[in-house]
Amino acid sequence: MSYSDKVIDHYNNPRNVGSMDKSSADVGTGLVGAPECGDVMKLQIKVNRETNVIEEARFKTFGCGSAIASSSLATEWVKGKTVDEALTIKNMDIVKELSLPPVKIHCSVLAEDAIRAAIGDWKKKQESAKPVASAVAQ
Amino acid sequence: MSTDVRVPQQLPVTQHAAPQGVKLPIYMDNHATTPMDPRVLEEMLPYFMEKFGNAASRNHSFGWAGEEGVETARERIAKLIGATTKEIIFTSGATESDNLAIKGVAEMYREKGNHIITAVTEHKAVLDTCKRLEKYGYRVTYMPVQKDGLIDLDELKRAMDNKTILVSIMAANNEIGVVQPVTEIGKLCRERGIIFHTDATQAIGKIPVDVNKQFIDVMSISAHKMYGPKGVGALYVRRKNPRVQISAIIDGGGHERGMRSGTLNVAGIVGLGKACAIASEEMSQEAVQLSGLRDRLRDRIMSRLDETYINGSMEHRLPGNLNISFAYVEGESLLMGINDIAVSSGSACTSATLEPSYVLKALGTGDDLAHSSIRFGIGRFNTAAEVDYVADRVIETVERLRELSPLYEMAKEGINLADVKWAGEGH
């Protein structure tokens, strides 16, 4: 397996590693993959309630170098985007950016899944928060 | 481990400074192949240019010189394993030897029976050969192994029936280094008139093997796992008590007493012979040295990292083998972090099939820990300084990757990973 320079760079210097409080209303958490498949990604986003812009992103990944690079890149890309813009990121964009070989395409799919799962979690929180918010207003 | 070499190639350039006396990169994958011993090369060199004759040329001095080299090699191999020279058949390597042994016995003894017993942890050269024979009407029992990698002798006894013609169980495993109870298996076979083949690729030259004391009837040998050249091996075939016959799978000029046609690889055979001669002299001393280095590696790693698990028996094991799973860290990413060290992983990501090691799975190791495994193969030319460097780099990389691992974080929070419903399950 040969790694592209970009994969190696993300592996050696992963961006936005860490965790945010998953119980926070502004934080969406996506946990995808499974240990027995050899890949688990946790991707978290912190979204500005007013603007829907993703202000912070964090990840932790169990997986090969390409999986680590895909999720590291995903956090870079979602940061500064609105939630809707982030949903337009496609796995093939990640494949292209990191020059992933065919056997590593699943890593990019997982990263896309992680973005969607994190946004999905955040959206769910907003919906369940709404009635509470209106109740407070009454 | 010819089909399971799992070292990433084109490794990125290392950024680490080598400690004094250590030259990077370090080769510690001696189950995949070994570097040639310079003494072996020296012995081989004349056979490329001066002594280039065909060993089968009986009527001139060029042929005689080649034949002399081959016969000296045959004597040296026979001496190492307690055989006679007429029992050694030269081949292109252990894969061919395994094929010849199993297919050759199956065809020759077809009248007697059609049942073969082997084990799930065998090398693919044995497993896939058995699978092919199943297509031709042979019945194959693939014995499970116990948690420590050893087969259960009672289970083996129960698997034998009056149609069993062959038992093929490896002497030592290429991934976990586990050494099977060869003598006991041989005895069970001999008592029942069943032919016993052992793939001794990893064992020869590392631990004592004696075909008579261990009741071995057919045995595969490879040169490049014991500091000899690639592309040459041998098959031991017992000539008496009892006499074992095998059908050839390569037909032609009738070389090697009709069992393996094809012009002999004289230089390679000379190299194999020299490798065996060195092993006869140095093996016992070398085993002490290698197991010392292996234990040093294990102790250094395991004293500083928690949740590391040794795969396979420590007691019944090749001296230079260590196979460890580092929980919460994926094997390929670990290899990438120790890119100035050549080792192998049982992770799916490093195999062509995207399946984690079937050997580790056979031990009952979960897929998650199979993905996290690293095989260290310490050999003749490794040093204590190298072992210390490898241990330190592994520790440092595992610690770094655990900080990056959501599984490690979850485990530290007290979450039982087995209870989590994973989104990706069934991938």
**Percent of residues in β-strands of chain B:** 5-15%
Helix content of chain B: 25-40%
Number of strand elements of chain B: 13
Strand order of the largest sheet of chain B: 2-8-7-6-5-3-4
**% residues in beta strands of chain A:** 15-25%
Low-confidence runs of chain A (pLDDT<50, min 5 residues)?
none
* CATH T-level fold name of chain A: Sufe protein. Chain: A
Largest sheet of chain A: 3 strands, antiparallel
Strand order of the largest sheet of chain A: 1-2-3
Distance between the termini of chain B: 28 Å
- The CATH superfamily name of the largest domain in chain B is Type I PLP-dependent aspartate aminotransferase-like (Major domain)
Low-confidence stretches of chain B: 1-14
Name the helix and strand elements of chain A from N-terminus to C-terminus, one letter apiece: HEEEHHHH
CATH class of the largest domain in chain B: Alpha Beta
Oligomer: heterodimer
As for the number of domains of chain B, it is 2
CATH class of chain A: Alpha Beta
CATH architecture term of chain A: Alpha-Beta Complex
Shape of chain A: elongated
Number of domains of chain A: 1
Q: Can you summarize this structure?
A:
The complex is a heterodimer of chains A (138) and B (427). Chain A has 138 residues and is α+β, with helices and mostly antiparallel strands. Helices cover 49% and strands 19% of the residues of chain A.
Task: Outline the structure in words.
- The complex is a heterodimer of chains A (138) and B (427).
- In chain A, 49% of the residues lie in helices and 19% in strands.
- By secondary structure, chain A is α+β, with helices and mostly antiparallel strands.
- Chain A has one domain: Sufe protein. Chain: A.
- In chain A, strands 1-2-3 form a 3-stranded antiparallel beta sheet.
- In chain A, helix 1 (5-12) packs across helix 2, helix 2 runs parallel beside helix 5 (105-137) and helix 4 (91-98) crosses helix 5 (105-137).
- The mean pLDDT of chain A is 92.
- A 7-stranded mixed beta sheet of chain B has the order 2-8-7-6-5-3-4, with helices on both faces. Chain B has a 4-stranded antiparallel beta sheet with strand order 9-10-13-12. A two-stranded parallel sheet of chain B has the order 1-11.
- The longest helix of chain B has 39 residues, at 266-304.
- Helices cover 37% and strands 13% of the residues of chain B.
- Chain B is an alpha/beta fold and 427 residues long.
- Chain B folds into 2 domains: 26-36 and 283-413, Aspartate Aminotransferase, domain 1, CATH 3.90.1150; 38-279, Type I PLP-dependent aspartate aminotransferase-like (Major domain) (Aspartate Aminotransferase, domain 2), CATH 3.40.640.10.
- Chains A and B meet through strand 1, strand 2, strand 3, helix 2 and helix 5 of A and helix 8, helix 10 and helix 12 of B.
